[in-house]
Design a protein that fits this description.
This protein is an alpha+beta fold and 161 residues long. It has a single domain (13-160), classed as Mog1/PsbP, alpha/beta/alpha sandwich (Protein Transport Mog1p, Chain A), CATH 3.40.1000. 17% of the residues lie in helices and 48% in strands. The protein has helices spanning 66-80, 144-156; strands at residues 13-16, 20-24, 29-30, 40-46, 51-60, 83-95, 98-110, 115-126, 131-140, 159-160. A seven-stranded antiparallel sheet has the order 3-4-5-9-8-7-6, sandwiched between helices. The radius of gyration is 16 Å and the shape is globular.
Length: 161
């Protein structure tokens, strides 16, 4: 009998383009089936740990109120897909010279076979030129103590060049 365990580095992995850079936990693996859209820059997951993280480039905000409109659109879309919703956090701050708003919500996603309570953490960022980026991390809520801080550190590591 052979027993093995997955060993991951404590050092995060880095994703970088001409415009942005972000670090994410080494236990997440790049994928193309987490949130496949043209705007998605990075999709990562660990199916064994039930942890997911994405980075989206929404481009230039359409108007002066574009940040607020995008935030409302993202959060309302998520709420429509959940049952038994609990808003756990809604805060605004500045980090890495980016305007940010964070929304944390838990709710039940159900399918024909199961219903599971997930915790979602969404961060919408705006750079000084009005360009919008979003990060989103989600996990099973009962695993919050294990991985939530990692997902938050990944979101907060976003830098725009």
């Amino acid at each position: 009998m052979v027993v093995s365990s997955c060993q991951y580095s404590k050092e995060p992995k880095t994703f970088s383009t001409e415009k942005v850079s972000i670090q994410y936990p080494s236990y997440l693996h790049v994928s193309n089936d987490v949130y496949p859209t043209k705007q998605t820059l990075l999709q990562t997951k660990n199916d064994y740990r039930d942890v997911y993280f994405i980075l989206i480039d929404f481009g230039q905000k359409p108007s002066d109120s574009g940040f607020a409109l995008m935030y409302d659109s993202i959060t309302n879309q998520l709420k429509r897909n959940l049952k038994e919703i609990l808003v756990e956090k809604d805060s605004a701050f500045t980090i890495n010279n980016l305007k940010a708003r964070e929304y944390q919500i838990s709710g039940v996603l159900s399918s024909e076979k199961q219903a599971l309570r997930f915790l979602f953490t969404l961060d919408l960022f705006e750079d000084k030129n009005g360009h919008l980026y979003q990060t989103a991390g989600w996990l099973l809520r009962h695993k919050r103590e294990l991985w939530e801080k990692d997902l938050q550190a990944a979101a907060y590591s976003l830098t725009v060049k």
